[in-house]
C-alpha cells in the first residue's frame, strides 16, 4: 500500500507587501506544524518550500512580463503552479499551453503543481470527469515522468466564492482522476500521485475533506494569508 505524503500549498496570488510577507512567514515559522527540522533559512523554515505562480513555456527571451523556468531554477525556486483557472480564464491559457509549460518546467528541474478543474456549467452538464481527464491527458501527451508532479483539483466554481465541494464530491473526482491515471498512464503513477484539493478551503472544512482516502492535501488561496493556514497544514494530523 502506498503512503503518499500529505501536501499543502498556499497560493498567495497577487497579494503581499514586504510587511505582510514578514508577518505570514513569522506565522508559519512559529506554527505548530510537524516537520523534520526547525532550522530557519532567510525568512522561512527549510521544511517550507517556495513556488512560483507561473512560468513561460520555453526558453527565456523577448517575452515581457514572463519568467522562465531557467530563471526560477537559478533562483532556487523548486516549485511552480501551472494551469490555474485564473491563468486559463483570464490569460487564455489552453490545455496545450499548460501541457507545454509543464513539460518545459520539468525538463528544467522544477516540480509542478498542475491545476485542473471544471466550471459550474460543466459540472451541471455532468462533464466534470471529462474536463479533468482532458486537461490531464494534454499533459500526459507531453511528459513521461510524473515523479515531480502534484495534481490540484480545483473546481472553478469554488475558487474564492465561498462555495466548496462537499467531501463526497471531492473524493469522487479524485478517485476518478486516479482511476484515469491508472488506465492511461500507469498503475504506479496512479498509486503514488498526490492529488490535492483547492477551492475555498478553510480551517472549518479541511479536516472533513482531508479525511478522504484520495485527497492528499490542499492548494489554499485566501486562507493561506491567515492564521487559519496552520490548522489546514495540520488537517491530516487531526485524523489520528
TrEMBL record:
PROSITE patterns: TIM_1 (PS00171), TIM_2 (PS51440)
Keywords: Isomerase
GO biological process: glycolytic process
GO molecular function terms listed in the Swiss-Prot or TrEMBL record: triose-phosphate isomerase activity
Annotated Pfam families: TIM
InterPro entries attached to this UniProt entry: Aldolase_TIM, TIM_sf, TrioseP_Isoase_bac/euk, Triosephosphate_isomerase, Triosephosphate_isomerase_AS
Keyword Isomerase recorded: yes
Keyword flag rRNA-binding: no
Pathway: Carbohydrate biosynthesis
Family: Belongs to the triosephosphate isomerase family.
NCBIfam families listed in its UniProt record: tim (TIGR00419)
Matching HAMAP family: TIM_B (MF_00147_B)
Oligomer status and interactors: Homodimer.
Record-given protein name: Triosephosphate isomerase
Organism annotation: Physcomitrium patens
Recorded name of the encoding gene: LOC112295250
